[in-house]
Structure formats: C-alpha cells, structure tokens
Amino acid sequence: MSAEEYFNLYKKCVDIESIQFSLEDFKRFQRSKNIKIEKEQNAIAILGLTDREVEIYFIGVAESFRGRGLGKKLLKSIISFSKYYAADFIILEVGINNIPAKNMYLSLNFIEYGFRKNYYRNISGIREDAIIMKLNLKT
Ligand SMILES: CC(C)(COP(=O)(O)OP(=O)(O)OC[C@H]1O[C@@H](n2cnc3c(N)ncnc32)[C@H](O)[C@@H]1OP(=O)(O)O)[C@@H](O)C(=O)NCCC(=O)NCCS
C-alpha cells in the first residue's frame, strides 16, 4: 500500500480532534525500519519498534465500524506480531477519558503502568492526562 493509501485509512480511523500524523509522516514511516503499520479493512495501527519493545503510537477503527470487535482483532494481531518480534512488552499511552480504548486494552490484559499529566493537547488546545498501559509478554 502507498503512503497516501495508509494516510487515507488513518484519516478514516482517527477522531478529527486527535489527528497527529500527516502524509509526510506516513512517507517517513514507510522508509523507517523502526515503524510498522498493521492494517485490517477499516482499521489501522502504527507501531514503534525498538530493542525488545513495541510501542503502539496509534490504533483506530473507522467510526461506523466501531464496536464490532475490529479493534480487538487488530490488537490481538499486534500482540502476536510482538511475540514473534520477541519483544519483552508492549507499551502505549491512552487519554484518561478514552474509555473504549482503555477497556479494549484492559480486556486483553494490559495493565495501568503510569500516568502523564497534561500529556495530550487536542486541536482546540484542550489538554488531557494520559495513562501509560503495558502488556508484559515475558511473564
Ligand atoms: C478504541 C477503538 C480502536 C476500539 O475499537 P473497536 O473496534 O470499536 O473495539 P471493539 O469492538 O474491538 O471492542 C474491544 C473492547 O473495547 C471496549 N469498548 C469498545 N467500545 C466501547 C465503548 N463504546 N464503551 C466502552 N468500552 C468499549 C470493550 O471492552 C470491548 O471488549 P469486549 O468486546 O470484550 O467487551 C475505537 O474506539 C477507535 O478507533 N477509537 C478512536 C481512536 C482511538 O481513540 N484510539 C486509541 C488511542 S491510541
């Protein structure tokens, strides 16, 4: 898939006030050895790969397809990939008020691991605290 196609899928799956990546970012992601894009129809995730660690930078499902198990399916394939990659853990940040995402991570045994005050700033300038969540793969 081209960077343009990934970017168009991302735009369908992200809530407009939370958009953080541009087409240029997707072009950069495709050149980077340390970024992996996982996709399903109507769902996309962007992963950062470092030594023994996978970070979920974004996971989203197109709005009209939410609540049907697609997010959880994609997260399960991220977990399988991370085990194959021999990562020790998966880590991510999620907005404290993002209940659907938080529940999705909890339903696959992620734990709340830390807290970041005023971490996110949306396009209206409103700040939101974030929770760091982690899934240990080696315990
Ligand atoms: C978070 C998101 C990816 C979930 O995807 P989804 O396909 O709607 O979720 P699923 O249908 O697979 O549900 C997975 C779990 O999430 C939880 N969940 C989903 N929608 C929920 C809602 N509206 N309220 C509460 N919990 C919800 C449930 O615990 C569910 O588990 P269960 O089916 O075992 O009960 C989706 O809401 C989304 O794209 N949000 C916008 C982008 C975003 O905020 N991404 C996360 C930030 S990195």
Could you give the topology of this structure?
Elements: H1 3-13, H2 23-31, E1 35-40, E2 43-50, E3 53-61, H3 70-84, E4 89-95, H4 99-107, E5 111-121, E6 127-136
Parallel strand pairs: 3-4
Antiparallel strand pairs: 1-2, 2-3, 4-6, 5-6
Helix pairs in contact: 1-2
The structure holds coenzyme A (COA).
Key terms:
alpha+beta; binds coenzyme A; 32% helix; 37% strand; 4 helices; Aminopeptidase; globular; 139 residues
Give an overview of the whole structure.
By secondary structure, this protein is of the alpha+beta class. It has a single domain (3-136), classed as Gcn5-related N-acetyltransferase (GNAT) (Aminopeptidase), CATH 3.40.630.30. Helices cover 32% and strands 37% of the residues. It contains 4 helices and 6 strands, in the order H-H-E-E-E-H-E-H-E-E. It has helices spanning 3-13, 23-31, 70-84, 99-107, and strands spanning 35-40, 43-50, 53-61, 89-95, 111-121, 127-136. A 6-stranded mixed β-sheet has the order 1-2-3-4-6-5, sandwiched between helices. Helix 3 (70-84) links the parallel strand 3 and strand 4. Helix 1 (3-13) packs across helix 2 (23-31). The radius of gyration is 14 Å and the shape is globular. The termini are far apart. Coenzyme A binds at residues 13-15, 58-61, 66-72, 94, 98-101, 103-104, 107. Coenzyme A binds next to strand 3, helix 3 and helix 4.
Q: Structurally, how many domains make up the residues?
A: 1
Query: Would you count the extended β strands for me?
Result: 6
Q: Total helix count?
A: 4
The level of helicity is 25-40%
Structural class: alpha+beta
The largest β sheet comes out as: 6 strands, mixed
How far is the N terminus from the C terminus?
36 Å
What is the topology, as strand order, of the major beta sheet? 1-2-3-4-6-5
Instruction: Report the CATH topology name.
Output: Aminopeptidase
N-to-C SSE string, H for helix and E for strand: HHEEEHEHEE
Mean model confidence by pLDDT: 94
CATH architecture descriptor name:
3-Layer(aba) Sandwich
3D shape: globular
Bound molecules: coenzyme A
Q: CATH superfamily membership, which one? A: Gcn5-related N-acetyltransferase (GNAT)
Low confidence ranges? none
User: Using only CA atoms, what is the Rg?
Assistant: 14 Å
CATH class group: Alpha Beta
